[in-house]
């Protein structure tokens, strides 16, 4: 299995969006840059903030597209093509409505669930077969409220759960960077299962 060579955090640029749920991918990449002792710098040819870091003994590119969410793919494909990074060597980190705050899912390929950042990335890469780390932010309950929901900050208790989930993602990062996604998924999803409340047993 291929090593991960590019980690993309999806989000929207600008201070007004920095703390909104839609920027969960940016938060993860910010932490990776700090861990690698690097500063994300604007690269116009990649339409984003970029850094090359050494994490767990491996060099990896970090990217935060600055194109706004619905044009994220332009930034991703620009860097990936320039450095000859294949889709299965890319990990895209993004907010996920269908997962509660505090939970994570790691997967390769699949649909985009209406997520405009994923949709545009799939279109530009001409394949859905990149890796995704789905960061749960919960759902407002009414699909008509989704657009405003993702562009608002999480409630404090939700933010604490999201932060805890992102910290757990750092624990499995060495396996993701090494391309051992099966082991990463097992660790991550087993941990998730332990955190879910047990269903009552029938009497």
From TrEMBL:
Pfam families: Pept_tRNA_hydro. It catalyses: an N-acyl-L-alpha-aminoacyl-tRNA + H2O = an N-acyl-L-amino acid + a tRNA + H(+). It is found in: Cytoplasm. It comes from the Bacteria. GO terms for molecular function: peptidyl-tRNA hydrolase activity; tRNA binding. TRNA binds at residues 17, 68, 70, 116. Keywords: Cytoplasm, Hydrolase, RNA-binding, tRNA-binding. The active site is at 22 (proton acceptor). GO terms for biological process: protein quality control for misfolded or incompletely synthesized proteins; rescue of stalled ribosome. Catalyzes the release of premature peptidyl moieties from peptidyl-tRNA molecules trapped in stalled 50S ribosomal subunits, and thus maintains levels of free tRNAs and 50S ribosomes. Hydrolyzes ribosome-free peptidyl-tRNAs (with 1 or more amino acids incorporated), which drop off the ribosome during protein synthesis, or as a result of ribosome stalling. NCBIfam families: pth (TIGR00447). Monomer. This is Peptidyl-tRNA hydrolase. It comes from Formivibrio citricus. The gene is pth.
């Amino acid at each position: 299995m291929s090593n991960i060579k590019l980690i993309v955090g999806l989000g929207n640029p600008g201070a007004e969006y920095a703390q909104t749920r839609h920027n969960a991918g940016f938060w993860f990449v910010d932490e990776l840059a700090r861990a690698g002792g690097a500063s994300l710098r604007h690269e116009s040819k990649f339409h984003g903030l970029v850094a090359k870091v050494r994490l767990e003994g491996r060099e990896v590119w970090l990217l935060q597209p600055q194109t706004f969410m619905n044009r994220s793919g332009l930034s991703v494909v620009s860097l990936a093509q320039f450095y000859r990074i294949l889709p299965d060597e890319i990990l895209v980190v993004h907010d996920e409505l269908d997962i509660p705050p505090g939970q994570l899912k790691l997967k390769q390929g699949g649909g985009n669930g209406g997520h405009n950042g994923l949709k545009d990335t799939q279109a530009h890469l001409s394949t859905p077969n990149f890796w995704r780390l789905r960061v749960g932010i919960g759902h407002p309950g009414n699909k008509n409220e989704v657009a405003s929901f993702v562009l608002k900050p999480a409630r404090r208790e939700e933010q604490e759960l999201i932060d805890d989930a992102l910290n757990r993602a750092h624990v499995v990062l060495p396996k993701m960077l090494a391309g051992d996604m099966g082991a990463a998924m097992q660790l991550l999803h087993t941990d998730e299962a332990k955190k879910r409340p047990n269903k009552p047993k029938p009497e």
